[in-house]
Design goal:
With 371 residues, the chain is of the alpha+beta class. It has 8 helices and 20 strands. The strands form 4 sheets. It has a 6-stranded mixed sheet with strand order 6-7-8-3-9-10, with helices on both faces.
């Protein structure tokens, strides 16, 4: 059983609060990604679970056992570090076997687990080589093989792909996801790379200033961010945020007033009529037209960025700057006019003072324990 639970865990360094009363539950076999900017507390939280940092208050439970004060070697965890942490004086076989030797396993068991782990990571032909004789991607595979060879209850990964180049990182991301699904390991993975988080995790815990601000599936975090921080951090480009007012219109449904124009708000905004809010919308949820029409907002093209599969436009509408994703065949000239159609079904309304989502049905409350 590899169920993990943080109960009101707090960790400070002097006057700096790194982890602020975090509650988090990770079920057996779950793959949870801790996502957030540098300094948000995600690595510190992982180190508290590993026993590399002593918590100031709260409890850490692994498999129903209180592990708060246990030394790392008794926690039944394995960790993959950002820097690989392979031993340069040991060959690949001995690097993978290192944890098993510390556990005083029999030689036959060590050989079987080393060879099976190396085969899973496609490095079985490198067992006699030393780290200086293999590439960075291969060294990362050695570190992962060493972790899974111990058959620990929980696998911890601290930005394991960040030192790889972009193409190798993409390849390793897919291989690692397939491997962890095959193993069924309880995994907690730390990253600041939102693409890794969205593509790999079963759930994402978005962290900010030592707290978990949203815990949900990748698609829910992307489509329904709990606040402007999550919407602005997750997604490339980040979510557009516009000051808006929802007003009643004669003989029709409510209308959204922006600095650059107005458009129908849709039936779902009936309860918000009369309020000034922040409108959040993704670049791909805005349709670009070349001719004016009812319900469209005029905008001026500032920059066009061809990205192969699509073009990314930076446009200005009234006082608002927006990012809009379009077909690669649509290539408007800078300073030309286009018209934007906002999809009401993909708008996320936020409170202008707190930044919190007005409709919080799909947003996890701050520091909520996942049930």
């Amino acid at each position: 059983m590899a169920h993990v639970r943080f109960e009101a865990v707090r960790k400070t360094f002097g006057k700096v609060v790194a982890v602020d009363d975090v509650d988090l539950e990770v079920e057996d076999g779950d793959f949870v990604v801790l996502l957030g900017p540098s300094g948000c507390g995600k690595t510190t939280l992982l180190r508290c679970l590993a026993g590399l940092e002593k918590v100031d208050s709260g409890r850490v439970l692994i498999g129903g056992r209180d592990a708060t004060d246990l030394p790392p070697r008794r926690r039944r965890i394995a960790m993959v570090f950002q820097s690989y942490a392979v031993f340069p004086h040991l060959n690949v076989y001995k690097n993978i076997a290192f944890g098993l030797r510390m556990q005083k396993e029999r030689k036959a068991v060590i050989r079987e687990r080393v060879e099976s782990s190396a085969k899973l990571l496609h490095i079985e032909n490198l067992l006699d080589r030393y780290p200086s004789q293999i590439s960075g991607g291969q060294r990362q595979r050695v570190a992962v093989a060493r972790a899974i060879a111990t058959k620990a209850d929980v696998l911890l990964m601290d930005e394991p792909l960040s030192n790889l180049d972009a193409l190798l990182r993409m390849e390793m991301r897919a291989e690692l996801k397939a491997l962890l699904r095959e193993l069924g390991s309880t995994t907690i993975y730390v990253t600041h790379d939102q693409v890794e988080a969205l593509s790999m995790g079963d759930r994402i815990a978005v962290m900010n200033a030592g707290r978990i601000v949203q815990l949900d599936s990748p698609l829910a975090v992307y489509d329904h961010p709990s606040d402007t921080f999550v919407g602005g951090f997750v997604g490339t480009p980040p979510m557009n945020f516009l000051s808006a007012e929802i007003v009643a219109a004669d003989g029709a449904g409510p209308v959204v007033n922006l600095s650059g124009g107005s458009f129908p708000a849709g039936d779902s905004a009936d309860s918000l009529t009369g309020r000034k809010l922040v409108l959040g919308i993704r670049a791909e949820s805005i349709v670009v037209e070349r001719q004016p029409s009812d319900g469209l907002i005029e905008a001026k093209v500032i920059v066009v960025e061809p990205l192969g599969s699509h073009n990314l436009l930076t446009v200005k509408s009234g006082e608002d700057m927006l990012k809009v994703s379009t077909s690669p065949r649509l290539f408007p000239e800078p300073d030309s006019s286009v018209w934007l159609r906002m999809d009401p079904n993909h708008i996320r309304w936020m409170d202008p003072e707190t930044g919190a989502a007005v409709d919080s049905k799909v947003a996890a409350p701050q520091n909520a324990v996942a049930q």
